[in-house]
Task: inverse folding
DNA sequence: CCTACCGATCGGTAGG
DNA sequence: CCTACCGATCGGTAGG
């Protein structure tokens, strides 16, 4: 898996980060102890502090290296250049594929919001916006068939759509409600974003 | 305020619940100690246990009494009976009014998802669905101008819309991005839900 | 409802 | 990288 190319120190570093990542996703930051992290990483408690100064530093490292946008952004940027409707559908498809089986990756964002009051989140957002904003600005400008002309609002709505899709997925997962959902829920969800829940009612279609 | 009608025990009970509520919203469940709750409630640590058996029981009480849906559901149900587009707009307006100044009420849901793995959430959902589902079922059936014919999907999308609106509100709150947002972001957000981001492109309108 | 306490566990460190 | 330890704090309880 390429881990043969890493030094022992690097492998231990990664093992600690991965162990902490899994534990944080599963039970939150404060509820996770350094001892749990050490156990899962396969080393003694004290060994962690050869690689990280504190528990907080582990979380910061995880936010930087494992934030969902790391996985999602490349897909979103790569989906550009085609038809707008297809861009959105492709982006959504890529995101669903990338997030894959479990929507629990978003827990990292939720932990950041609740337990850190968005401390790192605001910084991330201000770093990311200049990268993504132009894309949405261009979308709005180059195509005439947008109802939404404010690129910031479009970006927010798109991001909110992704977020709400995975959140509602998590919420209904263990519930009977999920059986009522259509198979292609992701596509249908995206369709609402693109066309809304209502047909045009001014008699100009259907 | 009506608190004169309450016994001393009831007032203490409420003070503990309210103190814990505020602390949980601000820093999460695990990061909040019973001593912090006692201090904020104005009693000694041991005094809490005259009213609650455990920390967990306090959280359960809060989930039942202070869950956002308690505030939101009446508004949503009351918004029924009018035109569908207006129903949605009215519901959104009521919700924004009710949630009011701070979107941090949703933190309760986030804590429940991350720190309790949706333990209470699934139960709540199964209780609530029978109440709300018929409303959306009726909406879909009685009006012809719906693109979305699956009531479960419509419910999920509506709930996701509300959730994502307040989440993105929290996220962008301390960021420069919020200055790029239109004043009536809530209405615009709702508008996307109703009509999508795209104009109909089959030439049948505008 | 408070005081005083329990054992357990916390994040972190020294010293090897 | 481990062993053994630090002071602090945790949730909870007994006894009044």
Result:
């Amino acid at each position: 898996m390429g881990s043969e190319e890493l030094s022992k120190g690097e492998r231990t570093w990664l093992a600690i980060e991965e162990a902490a990542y899994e534990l944080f996703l599963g039970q939150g930051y404060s509820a996770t102890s350094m001892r749990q992290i050490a156990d899962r990483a396969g080393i003694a408690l004290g060994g962690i502090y050869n690689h990280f100064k504190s528990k907080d530093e582990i979380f910061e490292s995880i936010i930087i290296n494992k934030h969902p946008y790391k996985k999602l952004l490349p897909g979103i940027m790569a989906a550009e250049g085609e038809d707008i409707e297809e861009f959105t559908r492709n982006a959504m498809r890529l995101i669903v594929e990338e997030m894959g089986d479990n929507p629990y990756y978003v827990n990292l964002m939720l932990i950041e919001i609740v337990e850190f009051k968005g401390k790192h989140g605001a910084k991330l957002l201000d770093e990311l916006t200049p990268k993504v904003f132009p894309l949405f600005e261009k979308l709005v400008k180059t195509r005439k068939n947008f109802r939404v002309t404010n690129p910031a609002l479009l970006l927010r709505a798109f991001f909110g759509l992704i977020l709400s899709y995975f959140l509602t997925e998590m919420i209904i997962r263990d519930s009977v409600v999920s059986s009522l959902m259509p198979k292609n829920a992701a596509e249908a969800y995206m369709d609402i974003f693109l066309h809304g829940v209502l047909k045009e009612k001014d008699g100009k279609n259907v």
Q: What stands out?
A: Chain B has ten helices and no strands.
